[in-house]
Amino acid sequence: MLILSLILILAGYLLGAIPSGIVVGRAYGVDVRSVGSGNIGTANVLRAAGKGAAALTMVGDMLKGLVPVLLARLLTDNEWLVAAVALAAVIGHCWPVFLGFKGGKGVATGAGTALGLAPLVGLLMFALWWAVALITKYTSLSALVVMLVSPLIFILFGQPWPYVLYAVLGGAAVIWRHRTNVRALMAGTERKVGEKKSSGRVK
Predict the structure, then answer these.
(1) Distance CA 106, CA 111 (A)
(2) Is the CA virtual torsion 1, 87, 119, 52 positive or negative?
(3) C-alpha torsion 175→101→82→143, nearest 10
(4) Alpha-carbon distance 35 to 183, whole Å?
(5) How many other C-beta atoms are found inside a 10 Å radius of the C-beta of residue 31?
(6) How many other C-beta atoms are found inside a 10 Å radius of the C-beta of residue 161?
């Protein structure tokens, strides 16, 4: 069981560490790290290579979270281990070994893990993200709102405590990766969806 646990957690991390944004960006002839914020996530890929590339990146990042969780659930009924695999995937995306531990912000990968853990909860969180993004035009604010309420959503839907703890720890990792966005939101300099880069606004 120990060996299986280590293999699944390592697989979760390594799958999460695959830089979807860089792979897609290169297919479109762009190094996303040299454009905009330099981040490898969907928002910066949209800025660097357009909507098609951004959609592919989002799907790829979600699959990095979904696949290892589904694999873990297939091979074990240990909820603590499944939750650990989910967390490993998010950590892999945020701090990937392939990029010197400088990765993305974990939102789409986190969404994929939530879908794998509890499909209804994952869909609700995804819908909430879109609702906040459409209303405010700030994708970073959407991520922060979802991460803050995700543990409560897991509890309200009767999910096991290992999954709730994962929501707390995974959410904390995502919020930490958004710390510069938090400062920009507070300063009023955060860039909205579709907004061109201008003096003072960052993302």
Answers:
(1) 8
(2) negative
(3) 20
(4) 21
(5) 12
(6) 12
Residues whose CB falls within 8 Å of the CB of residue 197, separated by 6 or more in sequence, listed in order: 36, 191
Residue 129 lies in a domain: yes
**What whole-number distance in Å separates Cα of residue 143 and Cα of residue 180?**
13
CB-hemisphere CA count at 13 Å for 201? 10
How high is the mean pLDDT in each 10-residue block of the chain (203 residues)? 94 96 92 83 84 93 97 97 98 95 93 96 94 92 95 97 98 95 92 60 44
In the chain, how many domains are there? 1
- Considering the domain boundaries, does residue 199 fall inside one? no
> What residue numbers bound the domain in which 151 lies?
2-187
3-state secondary structure 17-47: HCCHHHHHHHHCCCCHHHCCCCCCCHHHHHH
106 inside domain: yes
How far is it, in rounded angstroms, from Cα 103 to Cα 21? 10
DSSP 97: G
